[in-house]
Amino acid sequence: MIYHLLLPLAEHYTIFNVVRYTTFRGVLAAILALLVAFAFGPRLLRVLRAGQYGQPVSEYAPEGHAAKEGTPTMGGVLILASSLFAILLLSDLSNTYVLLTISVLTGYGALGAIDDYRKVRQGKNAGVSARAKIVWQVLIATVAVVLLYLSPGFEPTLSVPFFKNLHPDLGWFYIPFAVTVIVGTSNAVNLTDGLDGLAIGPIMTTMATFGILTYVAGHAKLASYLFITPVPGASELAIVCAAMSTASLGFLWFNTYPAQMFMGDVGSLALGGGLGMIAVISKNELLLFIAGGVFVVETLSVIIQLASIKLRGKRVFRMAPIHHHFELLGWPEPLIIVRFWIISVLCALATLATLRLR
Question: Which of 63, 141, 165, 306 could potentially form a cystine with 179 if both were Cys, beta carbons 3.0 to 4.6 Å apart?
Fold first, then answer.
């Protein structure tokens, strides 16, 4: 909104030319989202405690998690509110990519909020059924991807890391592919959100990484120099990534071990869905597997565990997702969290390194 108000003034007052620069607005959005998260975090915590929005612990969780029963949940509202506030103020709201990303964020956030609310009110870890949740996730993602597919100038091609001239055209198959990326990323983040601060660390590093990737994709000269697929207008998503990354940092203040409040599905589903949408728009769907390596490993651990039990009748891990496996091995929770954060940073650096390995 501020962007649209100040932009016309740039024609008469040169000082307002700074609002044209994505980097300037991205930095402002990052600072603003962080400050809003810090300012309203304590208030949200008081509201959640007063409303008795305590997290019911899953019966399948390790025994040590029983002490976390009743910790306020739905803290993801803080991330969404802080980031959306900065995005709406400082981004170009006429940009289709920004609007589509906001739509996925709010749609998945609403679904997660309903799920969290039902869990709290029922007093057990069973909110929206798994089938209903998937149906709504697929529906929201499909609408967003179809609108993206029909937008002017969009090409349903796939960028393959390390191969600068390999851009297969998927045609209409791109729609189910992109929907799978968005829904898969959303659920991967949700699976990772099992320890205090575990998911939010990789979210910050991955969002920051995609802030760079979207800026480069939207910058014609940089995209050409680095041999990546140019996506005119995608640089505006760097503002979205910056706001979401620092809003997550602000939330971490309250979510770090021992957590004062949990993110809940309202945060994990929305952040994962938004991240998947950004990857799809910027043509970095395959790079998401590298940047979000922690989420990939967590998801694969669940798939491997279920497949092994079904086919062999044996477990591969003591418990899945894999962070619970390390818990049962005797690793302290903070040790698991920090090591996963370190791995996430390494994944981010590896992703950025691919920009020259083409």
Answer: 141
Is the separation of the CB atoms in 215 and 232 below 8 Å? no
For residue 177, give both structure tokens.
């592919």
58 Rama class: left (phi>0) / alpha (psi -120 to 50) / beta: beta
- Per-residue pLDDT, 351: 95
Q: What is the structure's pLDDT at 358?
A: 62
The span from the CA of 20 to the CA of 36, in Å, is 24
Residue 49 gets the label, from left (phi > 0), alpha (psi -120 to 50) or beta, of alpha
Q: Which residues, at least 6 apart from 197, have a Cβ–Cβ distance to it below 8 Å? A: 252, 255, 256, 257, 259, 337
pLDDT at 38: 97
* Average pLDDT of the chain, as a whole number: 91
d(CA 151, CA 154): 6
Residue that the structure tokens 């959306």 belong to: 84
Quote the CA–CA distance of 41 and 47 in Å, as a whole number: 10
How far is the C-alpha of 55 from the C-alpha of 112, rounded, in Å?
14
What pLDDT is stored for residue 14 in this prediction?
Answer: 65
Is residue 151 within 8 Å of 166, Cβ to Cβ?
Answer: no
Report the alpha-carbon angle 120-125-127, nearest 5: 70
Q: Give me the pLDDT at residue 18, please.
A: 67
Residue type (1 letter), 238: A
Tell me the two tokens of residue 263: 């993110």
How far apart CA 165 and CA 195 sit, in angstroms, is: 41
| DSSP-H helix ranges across 91-218 | 96-122, 130-150, 174-192, 200-218
* pLDDT of res. 217: 93
Which residues of the chain are under the pLDDT cut of 70? 1, 3-18, 57-61, 66, 358
What pLDDT does 4 receive? Answer: 62
φ, ψ dihedrals at 6, nearest 5°:
-85, -25
Quote the CA–CA distance of 61 and 327 in Å, as a whole number.
Answer: 10
Residue that is written with structure tokens 């591969």 in the block? 316
Phi, psi for 182 (deg, rounded to 5): -65, -50
Q: According to the model, what pLDDT value does residue 42 have? A: 95
Question: Which pLDDT belongs to residue 315?
Answer: 93
Evaluate whether 192 touches 302 at the Cβ level (below 8 Å).
no
The confidence score (pLDDT) of residue 31 equals: 97
